[in-house]
Amino acid sequence: MKALSRQPSQEACVPADDDRLDLRPVEGKGVDEELAALAKAVAHPARVRIVRLLLRRTSCMCGDIVDELPLAQSTVSQHLKVLKAAGLIRGEVEGARVCYWVAPRTVRRLKALVAAL
Amino acid sequence: MKALSRQPSQEACVPADDDRLDLRPVEGKGVDEELAALAKAVAHPARVRIVRLLLRRTSCMCGDIVDELPLAQSTVSQHLKVLKAAGLIRGEVEGARVCYWVAPRTVRRLKALVAAL
DNA sequence: AGCTTTCATCGTCTTTTTACGATACCAGAG
DNA sequence: CTCTGGTATCGTAAAAAGACGATGAAAGCT
Question: Average pLDDT, stretch B81-108?
Fold first, then answer.
């Protein structure tokens, strides 16, 4: 059933996310809310850390994130939930574990919105 | 007494903020907190709006911000306080009014930190 | 001196965030 | 099937954020 196991040692573990150019506007009424929402997702040191961890890792990383942070497992899980809700990361159940990776498209969007300031 | 009145129609109202290149690191322990703090300052639609307003205006803008937002004056004042505390904007009393402008250096710093993700 | 305008701060209330332990869930090992 | 390890979710508590009206302070006008 095509188990999509973590790629052993390739460039990154991002499952071919949308890589096209983003043509959406970078300012306007709704865009303010969009930027605010993305900024809020990153508005916590632990979540910044998580995003960085996922970006730097060549493999998918699962709950090893918990070991990297001085927080309880449930708290880390909450932060992951926030990041996922914002679309910054994605997660997929991998047997007993869960594999997380960043959503490059949303990260690019965040960069574009901030850069457009 | 050199009243520093709002420049009538020049490029921007930014009073010659530090314009040198920023050589501080863009990742690391303390940097996560720095980015988180800056992101938090922008993690609200009203504050994004304010920053944009101040960036786009050729004149300084004062409490006209209040007229642009669907919020009470005290609430807007609070948002301005948050932005000022984060170093993203600066304010100076101008007679009975207060002149706000963005701090380009901090905005650049934010852009650098996000771009480095 | 009074009055008005402009803005900040205070006090209060409501909502959201953050954090944790406890518990439930699910997949794999034995 | 039972146990175990890895996660998510629940319940709860504390803290912070967000919003508003009321009040206060300073400046300018009459």
Answer: 95
